[in-house]
Amino acid sequence: MDNISIVVDDLAAAKAFFAELGLELEGEATVEGSAVDRLVGLEGVRSDIAMMRTPDGHGRLELTKYQTPSSREGDPRAPANTLGSHRVMFAVENIDDILDRLRPHGAELVGEVVRYEDSYRLCYLRGPAGIIVALAESIK
Fold first, then answer.
1. Is 29 helix (H, G, I), strand (E, B) or coil?
2. How far apart are CA 108 and CA 110, in angstroms?
3. Which of 8-22, 64-78, 101-115, 120-134 shows the lowest per-residue confidence on average (mean pLDDT)?
4. Which of 11, 74, 106, 113 has its CA at a distance of 20 to 30 angstroms from the CA of residue 129?
5. Element housing 131 (H / E)
């Protein structure tokens, strides 16, 4: 897999959120033109993208803000079992510390931090544009 793309309404906030999670900004661009229109199946596309790379260098997250056409409203509070919904999971060293650092960026727990057997502490949280982000802390 090369990357996962997520449409956001506030690109700066999304970049700050994922940077706090440890991703590094790899690059930014504005894309438009007939090739982009044909690729995504829309007309008059102009979008700003920011490519964020995971700390291990193996994964990338593309954050996309459409200038035109404007994005359709989704339900930023849709439950995790909504068809077509997505979540991105990150392995972390300390869930509590990460949550404390992400809360000022608007992160809210979806449920609770739970212990799964003797393997992980896990949680789901909402980030920018209602993105569900999962955190997994290995219990050693």
1. strand
2. 6
3. 64-78
4. 113
5. none
Please tell me what DSSP assigns to residue 20: H
Quote the percentage of the chain above a pLDDT of 70.
100
Q: Are 95 and 121 in contact (CB under 8 A)?
A: yes
- Residue identified by tokens 């990460």 is 98
- Confirm whether pTM is higher than 0.70: yes
Of the candidates 48, 54, 66, the one whose C-alpha atom is nearest the C-alpha of residue 18 is: 54
Q: How far apart, in whole angstroms, are the C-alpha atoms of residue 21 and residue 12?
A: 14
Nearest to 96 by CA among 78, 80, 115, 77: 115
Task: Please give the Cα distance from 100 to 62 (Å, whole number).
Answer: 24
Q: Which residues, including other chains, have CB under 8 Å from residue 37's CB and lie 6 or more apart? A: 43, 44, 45
**Sequence-distant (≥ 6) Cβ neighbours of residue 60 within 8 angstroms:** 2, 3, 4, 26, 51, 52, 53, 54
Residue tagged 């449409």 (tokens): 7
Separation in Å, CA 28 to CA 5, 23, 53, 61, 136: 13, 14, 12, 12, 28
